Amino acid sequence: MAVVPREIIRLQKTESTNSVALELGERGAIAGTVVVAQAQTGGRGRLKRYWLSPRGMGLYFSIILRPELAPEHLPKVTLAAGLALCKAVEAEYSLPPEIKWPNDLLLDGRKFGGILTETGFLHSMATERKPFVVIGAGINLFTPEGGFQNNLQGRATSIADHTDRTISAEPLLMAGISAIEQEVLRLEKGDFQEILEEWMERDGVKDKVLTWVTPQGKKVTGVSLGPDADGLLRIRDGAGNIHTVISGDVNLVGKGPE
Ligand code: BTN
After folding, report:
1. pTM attached to this predicted model
2. Which listed residue, 159, 200, 207, 229, has the most CB atoms within 10 A of its CB?
3. Ligand 1 mean position to 235 CA, how many Å?
4. Nearest-CA neighbor of 169 among 44, 5, 57?
């Protein structure tokens, strides 16, 4: 994936910047195309969750990339993007964000950002279907007056709650885009191990007790050992068994599901 001059599509309001980017990607938009919106009416998160996206309160953007990676390596893109956004927030605001596997960005243990990575296919006459990825990022810049609502209370935060610096979306957008491009380039070069090491320095749940519900519906409780060499989270239960989280979500004990 050569880094190409990027095109930035700016929207006042859209349902979801990921949906717009997926559509553009299918029609052949160049790698590096970014869709950013001031507000989303149907912002999407992982596991079919809703991403609250009120105007002026957050940064909501998606970037189309066509990384030269075998499909089995594509899940690593989410971890690389999480690290990238941490670095962007560190650089812009001198804050120390952490990551909760796979993609929650935390400040003081509360979520202020998330990443939704989706894959699309180029519409083409050729039989070969070429995949591309859309990395969508939502970052809470400000906390709504009166605080976050309902189930987000006590779990969500914003950058403004952690700094006195002036906050504006544009510099963070630029820093975020270039950090994502850089980390994905490293991934293509085969440097996932290094990415993982830097990711683990920011692991917000290492050694903490988590619960995970397996695809068979069994609840596992155990200590987080961090991601393995493929980026999949490992949990050690009370009997010493190691479980690899292949899908779904993990929750910190005492915090319950999002
Ligand atoms: C999550 O934490 O579950 C991921 C949230 C990702 C939200 C962003 S906002 C911009 C982009 N457009 C979407 O619809 N979702 C992502």
Report:
1. 0.93
2. 159
3. 26
4. 57
Is residue 173 domain-shared with residue 145, that is, in the same domain?
yes
Note down the domain range covering 114: 8-200
Tokens of 202: 């920011």
Say if 257 falls within a structural domain: no
What spacing in Å lies between the alpha carbon of 237 and ligand 1's midpoint? 31
pLDDT at 127 over 80: no
Question: What's the domain count of the chain?
Answer: 2
Least confident segment among 69-83, 157-171, 192-206: 69-83
Q: Would you state the structure tokens that stand for residue 3, as one six-digit string? A: 């880094």
Q: What percent of the chain has pLDDT over 70?
A: 93
Cβ neighbours, 10 Å, residue 111: 19
Report the pLDDT averaged over residues 112-116. Answer: 97
* Closest ligand 1 atom to Cα of 104: 2
Confidence grade of residue 246 (pLDDT, cut at 50, 70, 90): confident
Token duo for residue 87? 């670095």
- Rounded Cα distance between 178 and 8, Å, is 13
Calculate how far, in angstroms, residue 52's C-alpha sits from the geometric centre of ligand 1. 9
Instruction: Tell me what pLDDT residue 5 has.
Output: 60
Query: Residue 110 domain-assigned?
Result: yes
205/207 Cα distance (integer angstroms):
6
Q: Is the peptide bond before 75 cis (omega within 30 degrees of 0)?
A: no
**Pocket probe mutation, ligand 1, options 16, 22, 51, max atoms within 8 Å of Cβ:** 51
Is 140 touching ligand 1 by the criterion CB < 6 Å?
no
Whether 17 lines ligand 1, by a CB cut-off of 6 Å, is: yes
CA of 240 to the centre of ligand 1 (A): 35
